[in-house]
Amino acid sequence: MSASASYLARRAVQKERVRILYRKALKDTLNWAVHRHLFYEDASILREKFEANKHLEDPETIDRMIAVGEATYDKWRHPDPYIVPWAPGGSKFTRNPTPPPGIEIVYDYGKEDND
Amino acid sequence: MASALRAAVLRYIRVPVAQTLALNGSKLSLFNTVRSMSAHGDDHLDKEEVIERVLDVVKCFPKVDPSKVTPDVHFQKDLGLDSLDNVEIVMALEEEFKLEIPDKEADKIDSCHLAIEYIYSHPMAG
């Protein structure tokens, strides 16, 4: 019983690793592709690589394949990936932050009350 | 020479005044709406819009039957997708809303309901 439970736990970990690897690799494919139509082709090639080993059963083999995949991803990682502007490393990170609460900008444009 | 030509041309060119006025008017109305000076964080999406855009993205996914998509649908159980399709949908949602979801959190988004909740509560969703 515990053997099958540990087997299932191991399989769950492997599945998560594969999903995250696929996600990272897919994003990296988008980083390398300068045009959308190029990305679609690269993405389907990537998908085929994952689908090719879909039916593997032996946990050891799967572990090895995942390690190979992660090594390949690491090797081909883009040196200057796209980062959403506000995210750490993005071009707008910590730029023009939200003013602290209680501070308000009044749009009077020179028509203040005391004039 | 050039200045003489310029003067000659300018003497015969008439700019219709009505058009420039209309342009100014539209510019003024643009600035009259309340705009915050901060670039992010305070114009939040409303829930209806989030739901509509999430459903649009899911419906556009090639392997999905658009008639089955509802706000409560589960990607793998109800739409017959596999885990890699799930990853692709989450990435499409990230691009739609200009988000960057950490890998571990993105991995947990497996249904329209969760995606809507996550995006709606995300301060940077745009």
UniProtKB/TrEMBL annotation, chain A:
CDD domains: Complex1_LYR_NDUFB9_LYRM3 (cd20263). Pfam families: Complex1_LYR. InterPro entries: Complex1_LYR_dom (IPR008011), Complex1_LYR_NDUFB9_LYRM3 (IPR045292), NDUFB9 (IPR033034). Its main location: mitochondrion. The keyword Phosphoprotein applies. Belongs to the complex I LYR family. This is NADH dehydrogenase [ubiquinone] 1 beta subcomplex subunit 9. It comes from Nyssa sinensis.
Automatic annotation (TrEMBL), chain B:
It holds the Pfam family PP-binding. Keywords: Electron transport, Fatty acid biosynthesis, Fatty acid metabolism, Lipid biosynthesis, Lipid metabolism, Mitochondrion, Phosphopantetheine, Phosphoprotein, Respiratory chain, Transit peptide, Transport. Pathway: Lipid metabolism; fatty acid biosynthesis. GO terms for molecular function: acyl binding; acyl carrier activity. Coiled coil: none annotated. InterPro entries: ACP (IPR003231), ACP-like_sf (IPR036736), PP-bd_ACP (IPR009081). Residues 48-123 form the Carrier domain. Complex I is composed of at least 49 different subunits. Carrier of the growing fatty acid chain in fatty acid biosynthesis. May be involved in the synthesis of short and medium chain fatty acids. Accessory and non-catalytic subunit of the mitochondrial membrane respiratory chain NADH dehydrogenase (Complex I), which functions in the transfer of electrons from NADH to the respiratory chain. HAMAP family: Acyl_carrier. This is Acyl carrier protein.
